[in-house]
Amino acid sequence: MATTLTSAPAVTTTASSSESFQRYYEEAGPDYAAWSPNFNMHFGFFRCGMNPFDREYMLEQMNVEVLRHLNLTTESPSILDMGCGLGATLRSLARQLPTASLHGITLVPWQLEQGRLFNESSPGAAQIVLTLGDYQHTDYASESFDAVYAIESSCYAAGANKSAFLQEAHRLLRPGGRIVVADGFLGPGTLRGPQKSICRTLCDCWAIDTLGQIGPFTCELDRLGFRDIVVEQMQARVTPSVLHVPWVTLKFLLTSVVFGRRKMTRARWNNVLAPILLPFVGYPLGPMAYYLVSATRA
């Protein structure tokens, strides 16, 4: 179901400066190994019958769900991960799509270097190409891809409607190509009282300038000419993995801070603080919720 809220004006500047964004992931990026040894840097997807204590399995299931929503129709598709991190999702796709051409783009040199190292030791990853760059302004030729996706990376794009990100996705997709975005958005409702300050602090912790708003985001998809827009609120699906955060955080603090030797920088402390703040602005206490949005380029 597509929402009908009025679109926010497009913003053409980068949402968070590349300097603060890169510094955050250069300093705090290695800590994500405590969350996922494979560096699946996102929340998981839970289905009935799954083991809610198996975090890595839920994280991999999110990759599977994104692939399922891409509705690929070609035998050897060309796919782009817009904000690929260390390429964990691409490696997951490579195992399922051995003839696909897989590409990922990241703004963080450390992620690019580490992602390439992971690919070297991962069977079947020879089909993956990782590139350094801004996913809002890429060097790829127009209509290069059958599908594009972003898992918890669209939030770093400019503006509440993420217009520059969506415009670039539209340019890169071939007619009939698919886009899938899985991320946290501000949904219907408003931030009340101290939630505004908490939300701002949360964004600062993760080096996000402006959280996406699901209404303006889907309106922008429609304005750009995407069709078959489907918006799914996935909060219940990701909650079992979210509940792992306190335990992982405590374990991380004990191993890395109390008994570890790595220096705790501001970015690393922010990475600890952000998940603690999230429930205060997230559904059901606040308007922030997890959505999976899919659409087709006309």
CATH architecture: 3-Layer(aba) Sandwich
Q: Approximately how much beta-strand content do the residues carry?
A: 15-25%
Order of helices and strands: HHEHEHEEHEHHEHHHE
- What is the end-to-end distance? 17 Å
- Order of strands in the sheet with most strands: 3-2-1-4-5-7-6
Counting copies of identical and different chains, the oligomeric state is single chain
What is the total tally of β strands?
7
- What are the low-pLDDT stretches, counting only 5+ consecutive residues below 50? 1-16
At the fourth level of CATH, the homologous superfamily is Vaccinia Virus protein VP39
Number of domains: 1
Describe this structure in words.
The structure is a single chain. This protein has 298 residues and is of the alpha/beta class. The protein has a single domain (18-297), classed as 3-Layer(aba) Sandwich (Rossmann fold). It has ten helices and seven strands. The chain has helices spanning 18-28, 55-70, 88-96, 109-120, 163-172, 195-205, 214-224, 235-242, 245-258, 266-281; strands spanning 78-82, 101-106, 128-132, 145-151, 173-186, 226-233, 288-297. It has a seven-stranded mixed sheet, sandwiched between helices. Helix 5 runs parallel beside helix 7. The two termini are 17 Å apart. The model is unreliable at 1-16 (pLDDT under 50).
Task: Give the gist of this structure.
The protein is α/β, with parallel strands linked by helices and 298 residues long. Helix content is 40%, strand content 18%.
Protein traits:
298 residues, alpha/beta, Rossmann fold, seven-stranded mixed sheet, 7 strands
